[in-house]
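Data deposition worksheet. Section B asks for the primary sequence of the deposited chain exactly as it was used as input, without tags or linkers unless they were present during the calculation. Section C holds the resulting structure in token form. Section D is free text for depositor observations; keep each observation to a single sentence. Incomplete worksheets are returned to the depositor.
Section A, Depositor: J.P.
Section B:
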Amino acid sequence: MRAFLADLLLVLFIATLAVGVGSNASAGKGEDVRFRRRGGSAAIGADTLLTDTLRRLIESARHPYLRWPNYPDYRVELEALYSGSGYGPIWLENDRPTTQAQAAIDALLSADTHGLRPDDYDAPRLAAVLDSILAGEPIDGSGLALFDAALSVGFLRFLESLYRGRVNPGNLHLGFDLAPPRLDLAAVLGRAIERGEIEETVARTAPGSPRYARLRGLLAVYRELAAREPPSVPVRPVVRPGDAYEGTEALRQRLVALGDLPTDAARPGIRRYDGPIVAAVECFQARHGLEVDGVLGRETFAALNTPIAARVEQIELAMERMRWTREVEDTPAVFVNIPAFGLRVFDPKLGEDRPVLEMRVVVGAAVDKQTPAFRSDIRYIEFSPYWNVPYSIAVAEVLPAIARNRDYLASHRMEIVREFSPDAEALPQTAENLAAVRSGRLKLRQLPGPGNSLGGAKFIFPNPKNVYLHATPATQLFARSRRDFSHGCIRLEDPVALAEWLLNDQQEWTRERIEKAMHAGSPLRVDLLRPVPVVIVYTTVTVNGDQPHFYGDVYGHDAHLRAALSVGYPYPA
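Section C:
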């Protein structure tokens, strides 16, 4: 360790010769961060060396022994942290690490419990230097400054990762258009040190929803499970209940390990696929978004034999995404999870961590009509709406259908109009008007009423993609396990229930009145008294109660996020 520290000091000496003292960086614009000057080095010269070194480390925005030495994005925060203490150390007192320094390093070493990587924040290196200092190995003011600044940079990086995620989803083609939230890092860290609240600050900075806490607990469970991976299940073309199957024992062990089969529910060594094991497979299928039929087929075998380490990674990706949507933690909100093909409504005001409403949905087709993920606010409901046919659908689907069947518009209750407005006049179906539809000068819309593609209601939340929730006459699709069939908007299994919940503060809107408005045949807009957040999310892991659910990566967004994170720190911003 002494040789290691000597090498560090030599590197610092060379670096400081190149950098020079220079002028101080300007302080941050956020809350003023000031510290009492902690006890300095024993000698005045050593104290001066410590403060001068800290100044140089801040001004150069580079640290010689960090794994990722450059930190220009944190220069302002460091200036705000250290200028208030006269560039004295903030993690040391009388040349000894404070209890807050120990707590901070412990937190960095535990970053993996949040699905993060301790190495990203130099936790092992900081722990080694801390042990060296505590062991009394000689280290001068320059070395103390190195340690102090390194811990500050590492902890600032950790707080930011914990608060807003490691990557900016808007720049990575992940289908999530959301500006990550900001945090006054210097103010948060300054308060944590002054008040002795490192652990509490970490807890407050992480997402506060119970759903995040459950994912964190699930991560610990699955990491332990990955360390003792249960046997894989022998794959056959198909195994039906009652069949003889030599893989039944391996199947039993895997289902027990995954929690779908109680330990004493089936005796070891069995060779026939029946009884409690079939019921356990059905439970497994339900948790993995599969057809619940008890049949061991290609998709069920693939899900059963997915390595536990891959499930661990799915959980880590889900936790990363939860850091992108933390601003809706404390308010009633509607969540649509694309891979789960489901909608859930949570209301924290009720004090219960369970959905007050949930239903199946149909989302955009994976091939070329993917539903984007984003956050907006539901502002109004339109009952008995027109369906304003998007130009892409009009050209790619409706016009070819008219060419095959001249009565297509009439049979589908569609009309040609100049603009999408309730009082727009219907135009005749002429060759000239159809050509104008193709060129975009005229439009197509479908009348309210029976057969309307939007059913009896659509739920509007402004967004540049023109995505909305709506009812549908094609209710048979909700019986399928995989439901990516739409052109991008989201079809609801039970639109009446969602309308009833959204309008529960307008007593005149009873369920009976909602159903009547949906079948009235003329559009009616009903504004919500207050906007309700809606978050279209993409996560392949959820925890419902104490049951983990895993879903397929239908759009490939997990693969893209995994690739972005694989490059290591600093991650693509």
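Section D:
The longest strand covers residues 524-537.
The two ends are 35 Å apart (CA to CA).
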